[in-house]
């Protein structure tokens, strides 16, 4: 596929830089208005969980979707940070010994390894709370209906009917709670809940900030869903192919745990074909926006070609 | 002290009944709009965590504070349920093996005992998310600024600068993270964060729903803070006095873990005196409301005299 254009790469790294700075400020030791105190150990562990890592894909999608609708600045940046905080909380809890039991994340010790298990549970809890606090803060949007729509959207994408529900299904898929034979529909449902919903919301958040009409918001949501699905097929393909060195984390993990992936169900060629179809579908959702949407178009290719 | 009046007891049990019914509906297996699916195991474990227990003190405070300002019905009920869901999430996570390691809660197996540790972590996560979802839903308040103020208030009371921060300090107070010698100021800070902030918000939520002016909201918040502090001193006194049978949970736990309580710091007589002073202080905050606030007045006595 095509290499990323300079504009895309610049915007992606620029977004990552401002997101990092914004997260640093949100997670500083300085007590904020309305707070009683910030325990230094908790703050240090939260910074360990949320700073210095990742491409910041989710905030990038929020920022770019909002920019497409003419909204820039603190609003999209803060909303993007909220999604990223939510994502980081899910990683901290997923890594716990009773969940996926991972010692490393992006080459660094996971929070329960660097600190301890109790601290890691509280870090995840507090990162989730902070995500909602950031969205509900007037600094994110002066219009309170935008703030409450953002909260509602993130809650629906991440709760029992979204990400957390998907994580429970994922544990079930390991056969923890009785025999698990997953159909193709089950695997798709699981992936849509576990990772797709938050990615789709990352894009939808931009539409909420832009106070888009129903059609525009629908197109962007469909784009986000296709991108989320493409992300997951690409992840399944990567998991099968990549070496442990290249990824910096254990691979073939799903196979190891006997979990069915789309590669098992569709075969490698079938998975690649589906990935291409999803890229086309995501692109088609952006037709109405013309060249202004080129960055979001490139984002889909980036998602399926990412090496980390 | 005085026995509770019939009005008070009726209102308390009526609130508990409607809260229970409302939580049952929120935690049903039926997939709600905007959700992909509700995994049955997760829902059952969430119901285990949130249904059939407790006096529902926090929602009662929200409902009564709102009633004082002339607001009744679904709004205060839903906001109260959100605070209760948040409270239940904190209990599920606090009971985990790496935290307080409790096998029983109100005489029943804790969630990680009845299910497993991974499920209990996800149950807590999803209960927290649901709390914010309920607050941000238009069914709670038609005015979006009320919804977003409720979200912001609950997030601040329960996150890193409130309840979760307090739980981290509580773990530190056990000496887990180096020697812990807590001053009186430390113990007060810890208690204000861990339990006081959410109790105070339970009352403040009623003021937000009633769109109270600053003075009224301030008086109710001060009342909530005094009530929260009284709750905790009473808890420390109970913990020292009560027998395991009467409480239905292990007691003297704080002593066992070497944690300082206000009884250690003030002596039993000093703690009792402080408790009486806090009751008076809470009552004084209600002076401006006249007899209409009698239920909230009785709530303070109820809190310090409760046997469970």
Automatic annotation (TrEMBL), chains A, B:
CDD domains documented for this protein: Trans_IPPS_HT
Pfam families named in the record: polyprenyl_synt (PF00348)
SUPFAM superfamilies from the UniProt entry: Terpenoid synthases (SSF48576)
Keyword Metal-binding in record: yes
Cofactor requirements of the protein: Mg(2+)
Domain of life: Bacteria
Listed InterPro entries: Isoprenoid_synthase_dom_sf (IPR008949), Polyprenyl_synt (IPR000092), Polyprenyl_synt_CS (IPR033749), Prenyl_diphosphate_synthase (IPR053378)
UniProt keyword terms in alphabetical order: Isoprene biosynthesis, Magnesium, Metal-binding, Transferase
PANTHER family (alphabetical): FARNESYL DIPHOSPHATE SYNTHASE (PTHR43281:SF1)
Family: Belongs to the FPP/GGPP synthase family.
Descriptive protein name: Polyprenyl synthetase family protein
